[in-house]
UniProtKB/TrEMBL annotation:
Residues 1-32 form the signal peptide. It comes from Paracoccus caeni. Keywords: Signal. InterPro entries: TPR-like_helical_dom_sf. This is Sel1 repeat family protein. It comes from the Bacteria. Residues 210-232 are annotated as: Disordered.
Length: 531
């Protein structure tokens, strides 16, 4: 009879092997078979060698086999097929099989917009893998294994804004289907303890604490129940739906009788009346009672009018999270998180309808209709920014023109869009899209050296006025003539950015002629010296 320690060690090793075999493919581009274009010294090839070594060591405690492990670094994709894991010796009845695991969108360095997806299909975990609990699990599954036909997770993230959306779905035949999503306006890891350490310079001194406290005293330790690391952000919407496919009928046999009655279910409401938690608990109990009467679906959803701020470090119990988020419970499919447009032909609010067509929110995305409806509103900065995005692929010059308008109005994110659009154009094309050097300039821009410099920088950035490198150089040259070093630096930066392109040399010559005319006609030598 094996000693208890030996049994525990073997069980732990087996569990570790199973976990490694299932999760290591999630590492960036872990491969055992590479495409012909991949270098043997690429990250994918190196990780493949590590994976093979891990599998070899894992076979010391379990049989691990797979049909293929393919990767494509260009797509950031890895596919594992026909994985089979079986315990050995007294654990030989523990078996796991996986038809396919596919991970897409993996990359070593994050891009501005990231999208990754996990697909698992035909996963089968034998009940015997759970030891003494196998019989109880068998009651729930109604068979000798836990079947998971599909398990998918989609994650889309924006590096710049911190926004993210997560969608999950799991289907277990004969048991249940789970489907959920979360749309975050912003989400990030958060550690208040780390913030306090940084603010105190890494020592125990708290700059916001008691000024008369003993500096040699031991710092007060956080309670073990208080999380020191978590997530914080703002949540636009979320939902989680569970649909019964036979699991409840089997579980109902072993549930305590009191939970099958309205009175028994009411005992789950423990929060004081009038509190947020009481309202959440009552909604949950109502949906459970409806489910017991007619098994089907239970949905928890969040649809706040404005993005909901949260920090998981403020929560120590599930009740804290429920009271903060205040989910609503129903026995129906989740409600759409966006307002749906019943009649797409009703253009009484052309701007709103055009934005809906552009983004595909509330109506199927249609770029052609979006352009028709939004182009008359191009003087609106937010609309101009959308138009720049819609034209980005098919007409970079038009996209740049709209980005110029959006940036000049101060629309959020417009300057970044302007820079991206500019990168797709030749110097000649972007100068043609900008205001020429001999254009009229507001008289206030010539009031002083500082006014000249600030106006030049505004034209260079494209904020408050449409970007124009020629006008920026013209104004900066006037300020630089008085010995203003920042303006001289601006001229040099513009020259370095546009290089020796013939189009820029011509535009700069025009700017120089216009500047000389300003200098003489406006008598700037006297004006800027106060004479």
């Amino acid at each position: 009879m094996p000693r208890p320690f030996t049994r525990i060690a073997r069980a732990t090793a087996l569990t570790t092997t199973l976990g490694v075999a299932l999760t290591l493919p999630l590492a960036p581009a872990a491969v055992a078979q590479t495409t012909a274009s991949e270098s043997p010294w690429s990250l994918t090839s190196i990780v493949a060698g590590v994976l093979r070594s891990v599998v070899s060591y894992g076979r010391m405690v379990a049989d691990v086999r797979y049909a293929s492990l393919e990767s494509n670094s260009a797509r950031g994709e890895i596919v594992l097929r026909d994985l089979k894991i079986a315990g050995v010796g007294e654990y030989s009845e523990c078996k796991i099989s996986l038809g396919k695991l596919q991970v897409s969108g993996l990359s070593l360095l994050p891009s501005e917009e990231m999208q990754s997806r996990l697909d698992i299909s035909d996963l089968l975990i034998q009940n015997n893998c759970f030891g003494p609990n196998a019989a109880m699990i068998g009651v729930f599954t109604g068979s000798d294994a836990i079947p998971i036909a599909t398990l998918t997770m989609d994650i889309r993230q924006s590096a710049g804004s911190g926004a993210a959306t997560i969608d999950i779905e799991a289907h277990s035949p004969g048991m249940a289907r789970i489907e959920g999503s979360a749309d975050f306006d912003y989400i990030a890891m958060y550690s208040p303890e780390l913030v306090r350490m940084m603010m105190s310079g890494g020592n125990s001194y708290d700059p916001y604490g008691d000024p008369w406290a003993d500096p040699g005293a031991m710092p007060e330790q956080a309670s073990p129940s208080e999380p020191t690391t978590g997530l914080r952000g703002t949540l636009r919407s979320a939902h989680l739906s569970v649909t019964d496919l036979g699991l409840y009928q089997r579980m109902n046999v072993i549930l305590p009788p009191e939970y099958a009655t309205p009175e028994g279910m009411a005992s789950l409401v423990t929060a004081p009346p009038g509190t947020a938690l009481n309202e959440v608990q009552q909604g949950f109990v109502d949906s459970l009672q409806a489910f017991i009467a007619a098994p089907g679906t239970v949905t928890a959803e969040l649809r706040p009018a404005e993005p909901l701020a949260f920090a998981t470090t403020d929560w120590t119990t599930p009740e804290d999270a429920a009271a903060a988020l205040k989910p609503a419970f129903t026995n129906a499919a989740p409600t759409p998180p966006v307002a749906l447009i019943a009649d797409p032909s009703d253009d009484s609010d052309a701007r709103a309808l055009g934005l809906a067509f552009a983004t595909g929110n509330g109506v199927p995305q249609n770029t052609e209709r979006a352009l028709q409806l939004l182009t008359p509103h191009e003087d609106d900065g937010a609309v101009a920014l959308i138009l720049a995005d819609l034209h980005a692929d098919d007409d970079p010059a038009a996209a740049y023109g709209f980005a110029l308008k959006a940036a000049a109005t101060g629309a959020e994110g417009a300057v970044a869009a302007l820079d991206r659009a500019e990168a797709r154009l030749s110097v000649a094309d972007l100068l043609d899209a900008q205001t020429p050097a001999d254009s009229e300039i507001e008289e206030d821009s010539f009031a002083s050296v500082v006014a000249l410099r600030e106006a030049a920088m505004a034209y260079d950035k494209g904020t408050s006025v449409p970007r124009s490198y020629a006008l920026a150089w013209r104004l900066a040259s006037l300020a630089a003539a008085t010995g203003d070093s920042p303006s001289r630096s601006l001229m040099e930066r513009i020259d370095a950015r546009l290089g020796g392109e013939a189009a820029w040399v011509s535009a700069r010559n025009e700017a120089a002629s216009a500047a000389l005319n300003d200098w003489s006609s406006r008598q700037l030598a006297a004006k800027l010296t106060g004479n």
